[in-house]
Records
---
Amino acid sequence: MKNSPIFIWHHKNAIDNIIGKIHRYIGLDGKKQDIPYYNSEGQEFKAGIPENLKQSGYPLFCLETFKDVNRVLIVCEGQKTQSAFAGLGLQCVTSILGAGNAHRSNWKNIEDAGHIYIAPDNDTNGDRYAKTIYQLIGESP
């Protein structure tokens, strides 16, 4: 029997429509596993990511919080951190499926942001994530 996910994050687009979801599972060994559900069949989502999203880049998680290019936008490492910042009313996004997948995301939707802060985890993966994000979105003039 499959365990129930400990988190389910609903993924919305910029106009607040649900486009998929991420289920997080924690194994008995303590390892986490995020399973994407982006294959839509009507109002239901099945596990996996459709080819069109793989080719165009994974959508950013919580892009719907980015409404004002003049306010700071925070790029977080992961859905839990993003959810915490969003709960404070901040504009924040993250790539889906962990720090190692930042390069698979479509960052074009935030290129108009005037001020971007990067909020990685305080570990080796976080350092790599921050560097990758910086390279992907570039330095603002």
---
Amino acid sequence: SLFTFVPPALGQAAALAGPTGQTFIASRRPDLAGHNTTLATDASGDATAIWEASNAGTPELYASQFSAVLGGWGPRFLLATLGRLGVSAERVAMNGRGGALVAWSESEDLIRTRIYLPAQGWLPQLAPISAAAGGLYDVAMRPNQAFVLYSDAAFNLVIAQLESYIWSAPIRLVSNFGGAIGLPRLSVHLDAPLGCTVVVWDQPAGIYFI
């Protein structure tokens, strides 16, 4: 099926990619049927979409930005060539100023990330984060900070913060949860002082936040 996006002004839906190999996003490469689509928007009406697609049998991860000012999508961008199994989890967040953070995990126990800055475009991949397989839960971004919420190799629920384009040592939130946590989610206040970050998760005894 086609990927579509309806702009914030509720205009006509536009296809991002589809099984016919045709796409309205400028590209010289074929784009076969995609999946694992994720979309993030910000208060200005800008958006970032990411999706996985197959190029001659090779899984690839793409991204494209929607500009509320220009009223359309920019060219799609190849974020990464993936392993044969593709992504096991993917997340995207925006910072309110057109910047975006994309994180994904593949079959190995690593989380990979890339950042988009309006004045610089997509930066090279950052150093990967060691995690439990499939342990990527959520990401968040504000103008001067970015965060990744995930489970580490010891199955602790942890959060890492981006500092000078290097992921900091993880901060442990819950120890040894062993998969008993449901739907951990992360949020930041874009305009609040640095450090205003909230994590919410579900355990058998109730819903918790920190």
